[in-house]
Amino acid sequence: MTHCYDRSMTMLTTALEMENKGKEFYGKALKTSHNPLGQKIFTMLQKDEDIHIRRIQAIYTQLKGQHAWSDAWKTMTVGHEDLGKVFRELAATHGQNIKAETGDIEALDVGIDFEFKSVRFYEDQLKVAEDRLEKEFIQHMIAEEKGHHTALSDMKHFLSDPAAWFREQERSAFDGGTGMA
């Protein structure tokens, strides 16, 4: 029990540090972004990271006091179901008139890398998790971090080449989402 407890507490401490760095980064990206699409996505990502922080803090406090996992974190939800879907809707609304600056693309690259590393971190933690509730938490975090990664990658593609992005979206809608015509 002590080994599992110590491992979980270490994982939560590291996760909290990562999520705080993410929130800070998205706050900076929000301030430097000059297009409305980037501002909306970075705002949503910053809020998501804040939810992640609150979840982790709640679990940490529960685990420290009770030495047992709880599912209370499940009540702390992000304000959207799928950030990628939100991005696609926003992109369709804004059309091809969005102009990206070098700083926007660089911020997206950093965010993509950050989210990739977050996914890998949680996947590594899932391999050693023993408690059912801990596994559920980690799986949920993996799904949300993958959603962030996908949305940022999609946004980079959109800002780099809006016409190609729209063509791919149209083809995807035409062939049922497989990307194959």
Key traits:
181 residues, mainly alpha, Ferritin, 6 helices, 79% helix, 0% strand, elongated
Walk me through what this model shows.
The protein is mainly α and 181 residues long. It has helices spanning 2-32, 36-66, 83-94, 102-128, 132-160, 162-174. The chain has a single domain (2-171), classed as Ferritin (Up-down Bundle). It has 6 helices and no strands. The radius of gyration is 18 Å and the shape is elongated.
Q: Tell me the radius of gyration.
A: 18 Å
Question: Which runs of at least 5 residues are low in confidence (pLDDT < 50)?
Answer: none
- The residue-averaged pLDDT reads 87
Q: What name is given to the CATH topology?
A: Ferritin
Strand content: under 5%
Q: Kindly provide the name of the CATH class.
A: Mainly Alpha
Number of domains: 1
Biggest sheet statistics? none
Q: Roughly what percent helix?
A: over 70%
The coarse overall form would be: elongated
| H and E string | HHHHHH
> Can you say what the CATH homologous superfamily is?
Ferritin, core subunit, four-helix bundle
Structural class: mainly alpha
Count of DSSP E strands? 0
Number of helices: 6
CATH architecture: Up-down Bundle
Distance between the terminal alpha carbons, to the nearest Å?
A: 54 Å
Overview in brief:
By secondary structure, this protein is an all-alpha fold. Helix content is 79%, strand content 0%. α4 packs antiparallel against α5 (132-160) and α5 (132-160) packs across α6 (162-174).
